[in-house]
Amino acid sequence: MRWSRLLGVVLIVYILFGDPPACFPQWILDLGEPIGLVLLAIAAFGRVWCLVFVAGKKNEVLVTDGPYSVVRNPLYVFSFVGAAGFGLAVENPLLAGCLAVLFGTYYTYVVRNEERFLASAFGAAFRDYSVHTPRWLPDFRRYREPQAVTVSPLKVRQGILDAMWFIWAFVLWELLEVFQAWGLP
Fold first, then answer.
1. The whole model's pTM is what?
2. Side-chain half-sphere CA neighbours of 38 within 13 A
3. Which domain covers residue 155, as residue numbers?
4. Which among 27, 45, 69, 77 is placed 20 to 30 Å from 111, CA to CA?
5. Domains of the chain: total
6. Considering the domain boundaries, does residue 143 fall inside one?
7. 5 found inside a domain
8. In CATH, what number is assigned to the domain containing residue 177?
């Protein structure tokens, strides 16, 4: 979490003081914004969807239904989509690529550690789940969900606020563009 926040601060500094590289034609930058917005929405709603299944149960129960039935790390998959989407939404494909590479590099390490914990906590059940459920690329043919899910409203509410950072970051970017158009720094 600490590294994610540090990356967020670096990102804010870059956005405030950096410009997208001039190597991309304007039509690519213009097309990137709506695609990025769609990816940000997918990321935010996807993370909330995951939290309905896992919030308040993480590390206590091996969750294998809903988004966890198609991929072992759906929260991280949706975060990856959001990170790349943010770069596109702020009309900076290079930023989108850099965020994707940084995210992939860092979270590969995070997932490896989490999977060690899950293997020790849930033993054969996690090993069987790992064999049948992909780590990163969802296999939607495997989707299954129960009739009902018990949720922790507090954890889901906190998760919604966390997921909204993708949207808030874009809104901040748009505000910065307005301020720049007005001649403010």
1. 0.83
2. 4
3. 24-181
4. 45
5. 1
6. yes
7. no
8. 1.20.120
